[in-house]
Amino acid sequence: MKRRRVLGLIVPAATRPAHKKNILLLDSSVAGFRYYSGEEIWKKLEPGRSLDLKREPGNPFDYDAVEIYHENEKIGYLPRSDNMVIAQLMDKGVDVKARISGIREEGSPNERVGVAVELRV
């Protein structure tokens, strides 16, 4: 009998976790926030809200570009310095999720919205 099956029989179902935690891949700021719809939808942005990530491999400035959307409104990109691994995972069909990790009322426009990207396990 395989080890996993044996452990599954030994450990009662009630003691098993309902789900595993996601793995944090990146916690950074939204790049280019001031150039897109960010300011227009500022009041809708809240920590914890889901964001959509879309690859943009045809971007002439960054082959690994990953766009960030909030309710179908583009608010910017993952920073170029941090996007390569996430772009590669997305290209392979890996399920990555993004959410707003923080909001700053003041400061540089490119540091006002934090984005956390997690690997769903």
| Biggest sheet: strand arrangement | 1-6-5-2-3-4
**Residue-averaged pLDDT:** 86
Number of helices: 2
- Would you identify the CATH architecture? 2-Layer Sandwich
Given helix and strand content, the structural type is alpha+beta
Instruction: Catalogue the unreliable spans.
Output: none
CATH topology name, in short, is Alpha-Beta Plaits
Percent strand = 25-35%
Determine Rg (CA atoms, Å): 18 Å
Order of helices and strands: HEEEEHEE
The description of the largest β-sheet is:
6 strands, antiparallel
Q: End-to-end span in angstroms?
A: 26 Å
Helix proportion range? 10-25%
- CATH C-level class is Alpha Beta
Give the number of domains: 1
Morphology call: globular
The number of E-state strands comes to 6
What does this structure look like?
This protein is an alpha+beta fold and 121 residues long. The protein has a single domain, classed as 2-Layer Sandwich (Alpha-Beta Plaits). 13% of the residues lie in helices and 31% in strands. The protein is built from two helices and six strands. It is globular. It starts with a helix and ends with a strand.
